[in-house]
Amino acid sequence: MVTQHQRDRLFPWLALVAAIVATALIWFMAARHRRLVSWAVGLDVLVIGCLLPFGAYAWGGARTQESIAWVMLLGGSASAMAAVAFGARLLAVAVMLLVATHLAGYLLVEADASVTGAHLNAVVFSAVVSWVLTWYLCRQGERVDSANRRALAAEAQRARFAERVAHHNALHDTVLATLTAIARGGVDANTSMMRERCAREAAYLRRLVEQADDREQASELRAALEESVRAAEALGLRVSARYHELPAVPGEIALAMARAVTESLNNVRCHAGTGHAFLTAAGDSGRLIVTVVDRGRGFAVEGAGGEGAGGSAGAETSGGSAVRTAPARRSGIGLDRSVYARMRGVGGRAFVDSAPGEGVRVELRWPA
After folding, report:
1. Using CA atoms, how far apart are residues 208 and 174, in angstroms rounded to an integer?
2. Do 330 and 322 contact (CB within 8 A), yes or no?
3. What is the DSSP letter of 307?
4. How far is residue 47 from each of residues 42, 44, 75, 99, 278, measured CA to CA in Å?
5. For residue 61, what are the β-bridge partners?
6. What's the number of CA atoms in the CB half-sphere (13 Å) around residue 208?
7. What is this structure's pTM?
């Protein structure tokens, strides 16, 4: 219309640019906020829907229904977007303003009653259809979300049931087997081996009881750490494990942390000269901190300074107290590859504190 019939007039071009800018503004704000922004849609309704028709009549030479029709057509899109962005009351006000403006505009150009009626019907119909479609899509989205929540709840219930079955099987193979053997008199409950076995299984029961406190949080991390603990216990090491407010971490972080814990527990079993280790895992301001401590023979520190890229001896100062870090090659512990490098590979860090006769404390942190 503009290029064929109104190319010599400035205002139609300005009106066309204004309509394009208003539409671009609406969609830019929608992309930024993930929804239609009310003030941008309101600006489109007022400027494009209500002011442009009068401007086209006053300065654009639109004195016939044919020459003003393209400006009026923009009111339909304004009412459609208002139906999506506004609530019911504000939508009613916007539609009434558009209807009044376009009725006045067609009366000014003395348009046919059929043309006026059809256009006003289109403005109202655009708002109604857009509102109905928006309501329908939102309702369907809520149904999908509800179905997803039910599916997740069912999956969680199945996971809890599988976990209970696994615990029942483990209890049957460990605690119940031990108690049954003692009750039948087949073993001497006073032997050191039997006492050690009872201590390990008591620690396992204690962890099962405590697990109910934070089962919903970081279950993958806890399961990975628990697997490391049970693997060490299967080799004869008694582990006292405590978990507190574990943060949710990615699967690769949980796996790397568990493998570092496995290596630390293996070191206790092979080198510490004690059959008991202590594992603590806790969250601290979004950071995961896992420590493995033993009260064994320990070893002398051969270096100081921050842990380097090569996993050499290091120290970290906190509150004026130096954390002494054992070298990776000491006593064949293999901290370099199995602990230091593994933690660095996932953006974490490992520290080891030890001294002769004072045991060893391994601290794993993520993120570093």
Report:
1. 13
2. no
3. -
4. 9, 5, 10, 14, 71
5. none
6. 16
7. 0.47
